Amino acid sequence: xSVPRTVHFGCMRCYAFCISVQLMHSLKDLDILxxxxxxxxxxxxxxxxxxxxxxxxxxxxxxxxxKAEDELCGLLVCLVMFKRLQNKKKDPVVRERVSWRIHATTxxxxxxxxxxxxxxxxxxxxxxxxxGKYLVVVDYYQSVRRSRGVPPLTxxxxxxxxVSWLAGGSYHHIRVITGxxxxxxxxxxxxxxxxxxxxxxLAPQFPKTSDELKAASAAFQACSNYGVISDCxxxxxxxxxxxxxxxxxxxxx
Length: 253
What we know:
By secondary structure, the chain is mainly α. The chain is built from 12 helices and no strands.
């Protein structure tokens, strides 16, 4: 913002006005700098009036201009402070997170780990070894600064959060145990699921040759009771909901 040379910086009013205009110049979404009141204000002469002279028309206009400057200056300062308060980041809610080592040890002692996570502790550790490289936080210190001192989740906590939810747990209880917000909970879950899709070790390997097809069929037949499953090479886990066509009386119109 260019300041006219005739503005007297000894006047606190003019100085505050210039500072406010410079601050408002950074607010791209507010069209204050093109207001008719600001455009109408021109350079003001700093030469004092002659002693003993009565206020004339130029003096009255100068006083009105100064009053308009004061009002606009106050408006600009209020708008700047409102914008700063509006963009002020709220302090995060810090929750005490449960130690995974204590949590997992307690579930193992109670023989409840398999029922809680739908997998054994060995399978969980193996899955963590595969997905850990996809769940590591890129910049630890940047994450701490962005969250105002709250450390980021470890890959173990991320996997525990996602597996608990996929096993049928409620996100209300899981996020409280993990110590994260609702938005962070869903962000972590999707991050884990994307990591599962990106992991080559977890990608489905379909049999391609005839020997692989025969080996897969024999393996499924050996796993079935009395070998009733034959000529099966792949299985997709799912659930089919049985439905029927509604009757005419049930449909109404």
